Amino acid sequence: METSRNSSLLVTFLLAFLIIASDICMESQAKSVTDEIVVCSSTKDCRDKNYPCPSPLVLDCVANVCTCIHLQPTFTNEIHAPKPSVTN
Questions:
Q1: What is the C-alpha to C-alpha distance for residues 59 and 62, in angstroms, rounded to an integer?
Q2: Domain range holding 65?
Q3: What's the whole-number mean pLDDT along residues 2-15?
Q4: How many domains does the chain have?
Q5: Is the pLDDT reported for residue 18 higher than 60?
Q6: What does the radius of gyration of the chain's CA atoms come to, in whole angstroms?
Q7: Residue 68 sits in a domain of what CATH number?
Q8: Global pTM?
Q9: In three state form, how does the secondary structure of the chain look?
Q10: pLDDT category, 32, cuts 50, 70, 90?
Q11: 5-23 per-residue burial string, b: 16 or more CB within 10 A, e: under 16
């Protein structure tokens, strides 16, 4: 009887340790996912605070928060449609 009691007590402690350890691991992963929010009033504020942006993106202050945005491509002026030939 004493051995089964000791083994159930050991299993209980191991289960509690596993739950606590997995909770700590999940908290550390969640902290690394969130980005730091940098408050700004202009794009210059974001540049002054050295807000990082990957290469194809452009730094901008949107709704008082520094963000990285894509620029809209302006290739519509470069599309040349052939003029229809007029035959009389």
A1: 10
A2: 34-72
A3: 82
A4: 1
A5: yes
A6: 30
A7: 3.30.30
A8: 0.42
A9: CHHHHHHHHHHHHHHHHHHHHHHHHHHHHHHHHCCCCCECCCHHHHHHCCCCCCCCCEEEEECCEEEEECCCCCCHHHCCCCCCCCCC
A10: very low
A11: eeeeeeeeeeeeeeeeeee
